[in-house]
Specification:
By secondary structure, the protein is α/β, with parallel strands linked by helices. It has 5 helices and 5 strands; from the N terminus they run βααβαβαββα.
Length: 146
Amino acid sequence: MKFLVINGPNLNMVGIREPDIYGKKDFAALQDYIREQCAEAGVECELFQHNHEGSIVDRIQQAYFEKIDGIVINPGAYTHTSVAILDALKAVAIPTVEVHLSAIEKRESFRQFSYVSLAAVKTIAGKGFDGYGEGIRFLKEYIEGK
């Protein structure tokens, strides 16, 4: 089983950007954590981070042709603005879990709606790095149960 883990804009700045909201561990630590969680779950993973919406859409579409089994995505600010990412996820119909480091439902009003949630089988928010681990385990179980 292979998962694509996508991190959107500014997630490469974790540990630098607003550490009171996103934590003090850096992006390299997040990537290490994701790899560790995938290995523990027995899932192969590919990590992808990009700040540009079109590149994220392209990578989601490419996943379809690569027969990726599941997607874990933290779309960053595109969560609240990107119909294009929503449409790409719907087009490929790959089971997807949406993850957010912060509790978006407790943030500014414009951050409380997620377009991606309309395509995701589950949304996990406000658990920091641990949300990725939970998402990976949930997605594996979800796919195996289909």
